[in-house]
Amino acid sequence: MADDRPERRGARFWIILAAIVVALIFLYFYRPFQDYLAAAIPNVHFSNVLFWFASLVGVVAYAVAHWQSFRQNMFRAVTELDVEGLVYDTLQITVLAGVIFVAGAALQSVEMLGEHLMGGGPVIDAEFGRRLASIVLLVVLIILFYLLHQLIRAFRRGWRPRRPGASSGIGPR
Questions:
Q1: Is the pLDDT reported for residue 112 higher than 60?
Q2: Strands (DSSP E) found in the chain
Q3: Could you give the CA distance from residue 24 to residue 11 in angstroms, rounded to a whole number?
């Protein structure tokens, strides 16, 4: 009977997630909501909805992952507080949220470049170069964030950089 609970909790999570997605899709096509959102929040337009969706996903992912890390490192081990584990988890979560934000911006830039190319007029111009350069810069930022994430993981597992001139551990000869 106790084994059935996690399965039911998992099914409940997916049902709630599907309901939220359906509600968001409905709100996306509901014209009064579009008008309200455009009037209430400046600089939010439905032409940059990919970036705003990625931002929402990044914030929600950060909150959920940080809460799970906090529960694991603080609540479950009350007698042994694993502050170092919490710090490394927070760093990794923050970097991965940054990856989500930059990836959303890159997707939005690709969409804007596609819109520019299909809009007619000159294909290769200064606007095309600016949009292509922004995509390249965002991809480089994604790679840098990913490498930073891997570096944090390496430090967490115990990797220590070698210092020039340090002994090899064999001893003096």
A1: yes
A2: none
A3: 20
**How large is the average pLDDT for residues 5-9?**
50
**Are residues 39 and 9 part of one domain?**
yes
Q: Which amino acid is at 124?
A: I
Q: What is the pLDDT of residues 39-64, one digit of tens each?
A: 777 766 667 777 878 888 888 888 88
Same domain, 86 and 131: yes
**Same domain as 119, residue 98:** yes
Tokens encoding 39: 């009037």
| Residue 4: domain span | 1-44
Task: Give residue 170's pLDDT.
Answer: 55
What's the number of CA atoms in the CB half-sphere (13 Å) around residue 151? 8
In a shared domain, residues 110 and 153: yes
Q: What is the pLDDT of residues 136-167, one digit of tens each?
A: 999 999 999 989 988 888 888 877 666 676 55
Name the percent of the chain in helix, strand, coil, to the closest 5: 75, 0, 25
Residue 92 sits in the same domain as residue 22: no
Q: Looking at the 3D structure of the chain, how many domains does it have?
A: 2
Token duo for residue 144: 């840098």
